[in-house]
Amino acid sequence: MALTRETVKEFDFNGKDFERVRAMIYKRAGIALADSKQEMVYSRLARRLRATGITTFVRYLDDLEAGRLGNGEWEAFTNALTTNLTSFFREAHHFPLLAEHIKAKRGEPINIWCSASSTGEEPYSIAITCCEAFNTLTPPVHILATDIDTNVLATAANGVYPMERIEKLTPEQQRRFFMKGRGANEGMARVRQELRQLITYRQINLLDEKWDIRPGFDIIFCRNVMIYFDKETQRKILKRFVPLMKPDALLFAGHSENFLYVSDALKLRGKTVYELDERKLASGHAAAQR
Q1: Burial, 102: exposed, middle or buried (Cβ in 10 Å; 0-12, 13-18, 19+)?
Q2: Catalytic site residue 208?
Q3: With CB atoms 3.0 to 4.6 Å apart as the test, which of 37, 50, 167, 280 could cross-link to 33 if both were Cys?
Q4: Which of 20, 44, 190, 235 does the annotation list as catalytic?
Q5: pTM, entire model
Q6: Which of 17, 147, 149, 218 is catalytic?
Q7: Whether 147 is catalytic
Q8: Separation of alpha carbons 144 and 114, rounded Å
Q9: CA distances from 280 to 83, 161, 265, 283 (A)
Q10: What is the rounded (10 degree) CA torsion for 270, 271, 273, 278?
Q11: pLDDT (tens digit per residue) in 230-284
């Protein structure tokens, strides 16, 4: 059979290389790559070989592990293997409950952590919900938005999107929360400054031993992140969430994630929305004191 351009790879990449990449990204970011991701890994990391001028995967991975490519390349390696699929008001059923929860806290400062902000659509959807709930562009809300991927954080902080990204928002939301570009920026929209001021963006790897985050969150969004981790990693992360949450805090998960099988500290409040189970927390604390 004649080899086509599609069957000839620019770089040699075999099962051993793939297993090595899997081990490295798991150790670095907790991401458990499925067997089916070998072609995706090749495609994304081939760009890193071109960028660094390295001609083999073995040499690239050797240099990366040995530190010869610097921390910047570790960051690029992690960014390349991180999937960022998001949209404004994704899983829309969460936002009415968010609005209800924060409106019950009138008069109190509200702290929200969006732990996988990606390119910003999720934290801006949270911010829009808060503005609408309080009917002001300056609600008493602070949103900490974090991600492991520095590229998507830069996009999020900039807050500029193609118009088609916001077309599913209502005309009122588009008018109130975005500025449409003109001239060279035609076809683009930028999040209004007031909305951007509600959000602080920071890089955080959920696998890091220290997050440097103060407790006292009213809301934590951790949606469509845990699916990339194995059960033990999920358990460790959820265990670290608990002391950061206020007693009546809510934790929002993704549609395919079930935290009840991972943590005894949580109970279901709504569809993929959790709250602390004070009874189990109390019994666990009492057992620890015996």
Answers
A1: buried
A2: no
A3: 37
A4: 44
A5: 0.82
A6: 147
A7: yes
A8: 6
A9: 35, 44, 6, 5
A10: 40
A11: 889 999 999 999 999 999 999 999 888 888 878 889 999 988 999 998 876 665 5
